[in-house]
Write a structure and sequence with these properties.
Chain A is an alpha+beta fold and 473 residues long. Chain A is 20% helix and 39% strand. Chain A is globular and about 70 Å long. Chain B folds into two domains: 5-220, PmbA/TldD superfamily (PmbA/TldD fold, 2-Layer Sandwich); 225-438, no CATH class. Chain B is built from nine helices and 18 strands. Chain B has helices at 5-21, 77-93, 125-139, 208-220, 239-252, 255-260, 320-326, 349-354, 404-409; strands spanning 26-42, 45-63, 66-72, 145-163, 168-169, 172-185, 190-199, 231-237, 280-282, 305-309, 312-313, 340-342, 358-366, 376-387, 390-403, 411-413, 423-424, 428-436. The longest helix of chain B has 17 residues, at 5-21. Classes of the chains: A alpha+beta (473), B alpha+beta (438). At the A-B interface, β2, β3, α2, α3 and β6 of A face β2, β3, α2, β4 and β7 of B.
Chain lengths: 473, 438
């Protein structure tokens, strides 16, 4: 049943030799581990009426980390061998010349698992995947004559990780992940617009695509493109903004999520570092970061340091309650890890990161929000966002939005950037909807050059004031 | 130590041989090794050291017009055997595409010039630490600076590209990179900015103290920003932002966007897309150039291209697959541009600032607001209000928006081009854009 990798099988290095090198290197260090990873991934892409790409990647390597006080020494390599691990060990020792810490052997335990030990790549044959991609292409092109381009792809991955700590304690996890995306481009009267939609998470392809469910992904991509084809220039300036439920929660991710990660607050470079226990959002706003939701893209059984994940309350009824922590920042801030220590892969150091970041439901309706706006915009879907942690300013780009005039939804407007101020935006939230929704499972968050899969969720919300970056003055 | 040519060539020819034996009609392989050593400082103390040793191989096999590829970081023969077998098997099951093929033999690079891209110097971590101490001490001179994070990286890489047509070449490259990110604080605000230097040769790297001071100065001047009203105003893009606009232009003329019909510059060759004064070059053979190369990622020779001549678009960036589709020959741009730049304009930086009674000088943009299908552009921005040639006060929480089709026609360039990155632009002014603020 278990498809756990045996990292030492084809190596001149035995597990017990590795354990000895690890324990020897980490004695008197405050923390550290050997992180081993074996990932297999595939990408199958249909584009321009053809299967453009079918590729497979197999990646194997280790990252060896030693921490003394605030200093992190890291070394990684693809060669799991005696020589290579010893060289890494020497490298770590030469950075941490005189260490006098105490290794913290305590690591919380949990038997809970949030996804199955499966390899999604092998659960569906190449021919079946190619067949669906061709069906997607034919389905969409027969639906609308204005379709000039269809792109669809499958991305599948199985990542096995093993963490060996000083003293030989070992933690393992096998993580499946898939994504299915469709993008269409329409052209009408010389104007081109695109629509993109996708689904995914930590289950088999079929869990997301059964019963021709891929058709609803196609329909949604086509719907967004069609709306944009009729869009007019977006307004420019400050106005009220209603955000739809689900994926627009990347606003929460950018505006406050990053600012609540432990490293920026330990270093006092986050705009939130001195706001713990204070009111940072309107009453009724509660935000959690949850790694424990079954099969979600941002969920993890254990984080990349071996700590079981949890549901961390960040903001409760407007009050800032917790930051997200890895072991290093937790130790230095005299608190506990929230199971938020993540890395893109063995090439990277651990950083505190988000998992599934969610604003919980309130009790108003979207209808009430629209009615409360004289002049503003209703944003339904976004492309992506970014934040400057220090100044707190964040942006995100609308991919589907409408103007609101006198309490009614009006014409669609062109993609525009919205900009706001993280620490103050949640105080501008004047209504919280009763319609919380998870995103479809497509998010990747970038930080310090590392991308990790994440999720977001929120109900509809009304924000009193944001700057809309359109072209119409 | 980075692996030598002999090791990489041996792996490459092993893969080509096996692919052929298993039934591939054609194949290509890239083997690379990259060894980096980084030291990070924070607030004048050692914060992190990081050594990475990355091996990688990627193989593409063809059976007639069918194609598939695999990549791996595990170069043991056992693993390669399994993967190549899988690759050939997948190729058999992948539908054919008439445009799939290796590059035409006569387009492959015949010679590999020494472009001075490798410096054998090894800088020990202790020397990196000395550099960073000097840098951080200069960066934290002013009391308003409350946090400094700096890093120094040495990278040495080597690669071999080989294909079943007999092409086999590669070479070593090196880079030395120093950067500094500083945070400044006053009663009203906290701001961050950075400075950076990257060179092929250690001796060419910027002076540590100058780099630190520059980062600090650029951060302090951003303190206590204001938000301005929404209006149409001339925008001046700092060189580090202007180069991004040039990169967007490059994505819009890539043969893949053109052949798929997803670029606002499709069918614009030999048409005027910029004003008369604008020239864009892509020059692969600059000695020590950060984007220099002898051939592209398919082995096709790369000559200098004048992409835009007096405002007229002259070439797309063409690879083999999309070239065949568009009925054009590859011009050696698989994997993108090399050293891409706008030629200097004929006005000084100072005169550019002075050319309008009021303008906005943008030093940072955030968000992914460039759409190459429609040409629409909308990003968050930070910068300064400029009046009569002088920086008046810092500005933030605004957006700037326009459409590239109009923006390109309204570009004025200063004459201050330098080659700090692989893609470079002089300071750039664009008139007629919309700022959204209060």
């Amino acid at each position: 049943m278990s498809s756990m990798s045996n990292f030492f099988e084809k190596s001149d290095l035995s597990r017990s030799e590795a354990e000895n090198i690890i324990s020897d290197t980490l004695q008197k260090c405050d923390d550290g581990e050997l992180y081993l990873e074996n990932s297999k991934s595939e990408s199958i892409l249909l584009d321009d009426n053809k299967i453009k790409n079918s590729s497979y990647n197999s990646d194997l390597g280790f990252g060896f980390r030693a921490i003394s006080d605030e200093v992190v020494a890291y070394s990684h390599s693809n060669e799991i061998s005696k020589n290579s691990l010893k060289q890494s060990s020497e490298n770590l020792k030469s950075t941490l010349k005189s260490v006098k810490g105490t290794y913290n052997h305590e690591i919380p335990k949990s038997n809970k698992k949030y996804y199955e030990n499966i390899n999604p790549i092998e659960q569906k044959s190449l021919n079946e995947k190619i067949k669906i991609l061709n069906e997607v292409n034919n389905y969409l092109r027969s639906k609308d004559d204005n379709i000039k381009q269809v792109t669809a792809n499958f991305l599948g991955e199985q990542k096995s990780v093993e963490i060996i700590r000083s003293g030989g304690e070992t933690l393992t996890d096998v993580r499946p992940l898939i994504r299915f995306n469709v993008s269409v481009m329409l052209e009408k009267n010389g104007r081109k617009e695109t629509g993109v939609y996708g689904v995914g998470g930590r289950q088999s392809y079929d869990s997301y695509l059964k019963d021709d469910n891929w058709k609803s992904v196609c329909d949604e991509a086509l719907r967004i493109a069609s709306v944009n084809l009729e869009s007019k220039p977006a307004p420019a300036g400050e106005m009220k903004v209603v955000l739809g439920p689900g994926w627009p929660a990347i606003l929460i991710h950018e505006a406050v999520g990053h600012g609540l990660e432990g490293d920026f607050n330990r270093k006092k470079t986050s705009a939130f570092h001195n706001l713990m226990g204070q009111k940072v959002a309107s009453e009724g706003v509660t935000i959690v970061d949850d790694g424990t939701i079954d099969n979600r893209r941002g969920s993890l059984t254990i984080d990349d340091e071996g700590t079981p994940t949890e549901k961390t309350v960040l903001i409760e009824n407007g009050i800032l309650k917790n930051f997200m922590q890895d072991r290093l920042n937790a130790r230095l801030m005299k608190t506990k890890s929230t199971g938020s220590g993540r890395r893109e892969n063995y090439r990277h150091i651990v950083l505190p990161r988000m998992r599934n970041t969610m604003m919980l439901s309130g009790n108003q309706t979207q209808d009430e929000m629209i009615k409360a706006v004289d002049k503003g915009i209703f944003a339904v879907s976004f492309g992506g966002g970014q934040v400057d942690i220090t100044s707190g300013k964040f942006v995100f780009n609308c991919t589907e939005a409408y103007e609101i005039v006198n309490g009614k939804i009006g014409s669609p407007i062109k993609g525009a950037t919205l900009i706001g101020d993280g620490p103050s935006i949640l105080k501008e939230v004047s209504m919280v909807g009763n319609d919380m929704m998870m995103d479809p499972g497509i998010g990747t968050c970038g930080k310090a050059g590392q991308g990790v899969p994440v999720g977001v969720a929120q109900p509809s919300i009304l924000i009193n004031k944001m700057t809309v970056g359109g072209t119409k003055l | 130590m980075v692996k030598d040519q002999e090791f990489l060539e041996k792996k490459a020819s092993y893969c080509l041989g096996l692919a052929k034996k298993l039934g591939a009609t054609e194949s290509s392989v890239i083997v690379n090794n990259s060894v980096s050593e980084t030291v990070n400082f924070r607030n004048k103390k050692l914060d992190e050291s990081n050594r990475s040793d990355d091996l990688g191989i990627s193989i593409t096999t063809y059976i007639g017009k069918k194609k598939s590829s695999i990549s791996s970081s595990n170069l043991l023969d056992d693993n390669l055997n399994i993967l190549i077998e899988k690759c050939v098997e997948t190729t058999k099951n992948t539908p054919q595409d008439e445009f799939n093929s290796l590059p035409d033999k006569d387009l492959l690079a015949k010679e590999v010039k020494d472009l001075d891209l490798y410096d054998d110097t090894h800088i020990e971590n202790d020397q990196k630490i000395d550099y960073l101490k000097k840098l951080e001490s200069a960066a934290s001179n002013d009391k308003k600076i409350v946090n400094t994070e700096s890093s120094f990286t040495q990278n040495k890489s080597n690669f071999i590209l080989a294909n079943s047509e007999g092409f086999c070449a590669g070479y070593k490259t090196s880079s030395f990179t120093a950067s500094s990110v500083t945070v400044a604080k006053d009663e009203k605000s906290m701001e961050r900015d950075y400075e950076y230097s990257s060179k092929c040769f250690l001796k060419d790297l910027d002076d540590a103290e100058e780099l630190g001071k520059q980062a600090a100065d650029q951060t302090i001047r951003k303190l206590s920003p204001k938000k301005i009203g929404s209006e149409k105003i001339a925008i001046i893009f700092d060189k580090r932002i202007a180069k991004g606009i040039l990169s967007t232009f490059a994505s819009a003329i890539s043969s893949s966007a053109i052949s798929r019909g997803t670029s606002f510059l499709k069918d614009k060759v030999n048409q005027k897309i910029f004003s008369d004064t604008i020239n864009v070059l892509d020059k692969p053979d600059i000695l020590k150039g950060l984007g220099s190369r002898n051939f592209d990622s398919e082995g096709v020779k790369t000559d200098t291209l004048k992409l835009v001549d007096q405002g007229i678009l002259k070439h797309y960036l063409i690879d083999t697959y999309n070239g065949k589709k568009l009925n054009l020959k590859s011009n050696g741009r698989c994997g993108g541009t090399s050293n891409l730049y706008f030629e200097n304009g004929n006005i000084s930086f100072k005169d550019l600032l002075n050319s309008k009674s009021k303008s906005l000088y943008i030093t940072e943009t955030i968000g992914h607001g460039s759409n190459i299908v429609t040409g629409d552009y909308s990003v968050g921005a930070t910068g300064f209000l400029v009046e009569n040639g002088e920086f008046k006060y810092p500005i933030n929480e605004i957006t700037i928006a326009g459409n590239f089709k109009d923006m390109f026609k309204n570009i004025t360039l200063a004459n201050d081009l330098d080659f700090k990155y692989a893609t470079n632009s002089p300071t750039m002014m664009i008139e007629g854009m919309v700022v959204a603020g209060k």
